[in-house]
Amino acid sequence: MTVQPEVQDQYEAYPYPSRNPADEHKRLITGSPSNLVELNHYLFAGKRDFSQSFRALVAGGGTGDATIMLAQQLADASGDGKGQVGQVTYLDLSSASRAIVEARAKARGLNNITFLSGSLLDLPNLGLEPFDYIDCCGVLHHLTSPEQGLKALTSVLKEDGGMGIMVYGEYGREGVYPMQDLLRSLGKDCSNLAEKVKLTRRLLEKLPPTNSFNRNPFVIDHKASDAELVDLLLHSCDRAYTVPQIADLVASSGLEFTAFVEPIRYKVDTYIKDAKLLQHAHALCPLEQAAIAEQLASNMKLHVFYLSRQKETIADLSQADKAIPIFREMQPDIIAESLKKTSALKSNLDGIPLNLPLPRLSAAIAKRCDGTNNLSEIFAELKELDTRLEWTKFLQQFKEFYTVFNDLNHLLLKYEDN
Fold first, then answer.
1. Domain locations in the chain?
2. Do the strands 302-308 and 256-261 form a parallel or antiparallel pair, or are they unpaired?
3. Residues 195-228: tens digit of each pLDDT
4. pLDDT 10s digits, 336-384
5. CA distance 193 to 215
6. Of all helices (H) and strands (E), which one includes residue 113?
7. What do you get for the CA distance between the two ends of the chain, in Å?
8. What gap in Å lies between CA 200 and CA 194, rounded to an integer?
9. What percent of the chain has pLDDT over 70?
10. CB neighbours (10 Å) of residue 292?
11. pLDDT at 252 over 50
């Protein structure tokens, strides 16, 4: 099985996304999926110990964001911060992209990455040991058969393993595909991709205000660099998905759909408050509700979701006293200080304002969600401050607090063996 040669040529000429290995000394790029705290919550019920053996594959790794994030976090999870038990395999067609990832890994001193050149479609024939986790972001929608791609990934996934996937969202990319068609027509006489890039830049400066791409405020990737422009507007094989189409894709693989990230985007209640409308919406299954939420919002330019071979893999509060709440990329002290001044959390979902009510103990709870304290320990600390506090009252307030921050994918759960 092969991919279109035009796709490989594109990523050789314009490695994506644009990255400078020298920047590794300044910051670690993180995101969804594949953050260890996040994938543990959604795929392993919060019970995975990353100081033990863990094999991850980044299929179609590009210039390496997921590869570097996973490798660094797995190294950090080892006893000495340099462990080899957490291994990442990088796979990509582009030698130019691979060179950038290798330079990024060298800059960080990471030595827990195996680099492979090739297509994810060839995975069934590469003789690789199965993986605990597979990251595949921004790749399936560039294949002539995404279904074949997902089946190839599934062929190297462990029986208790899971995947983090990203594909484009149809409604948030309004105007992109008419613009791609327009550029194909205008660029027929261009001799190479670089000439098409110049033509595209020229056209974007002249677009009428009524143009659908010009009116879409959510798609701004092309402003970052030529690599982002090529990937967005000059790709030779590109499609987007609605929620029902994602459901069909997942069904073709035999995997279980686990969750969308962030959950709040896929809840009808986020967008409408009318009781009669909600009554009709809540009668539908979760994926049907997510489809309605997507249509209501009309601003999702991509979908991030987790898949598993197993059912019911999300961490929950069924053993609440042992649950350890942990913020994802947020500092407990900073969150706690900000919550002292408000009874609600204000946020924004790409133009949709949110005002989410919080319980009275929010600041005190947030301060103690440091990834080490379980709920029974947090309760004990708070009871010392207020002897009248009861477990049931505390747990109710935590659940309200947790719902708000978990819906935004900020607060997750993990469990440790006692």
1. 5-168+241-308, 178-224, 320-415
2. antiparallel
3. 999 999 999 999 999 999 999 999 999 999 999 9
4. 999 998 999 999 999 999 999 999 999 999 999 999 999 999 999 999 9
5. 26
6. strand 113-117
7. 48
8. 10
9. 98
10. 19
11. yes
CATH topology (fold) of 5-168+241-308: Rossmann fold (3.40.50)
Q: H or E stretch including 366?
A: helix 362-367
Q: How open is the CA angle 374-340-397, to the nearest 5 degrees?
A: 45
**pTM (predicted TM-score):** 0.96
- C-alpha 134/C-alpha 201 separation (Å) is 36
User: Phi then psi for 393, rounded to 5 degrees?
Assistant: -70, -40
In whole numbers, what is the pLDDT of the chain averaged over residues?
A: 95
Residue 139 to residue 223: CA distance in whole angstroms: 21
Tokens of 1: 């099985």
Token duo for residue 171: 């409604």
What per-residue confidence (pLDDT) applies to 6?
Answer: 85
Which residue shows structure tokens 């405020």? Answer: 217
8 Å CB contact between 147 and 252? yes
DSSP type of residue 361: T
CA atoms within 13 A on the CB side of 369: 28
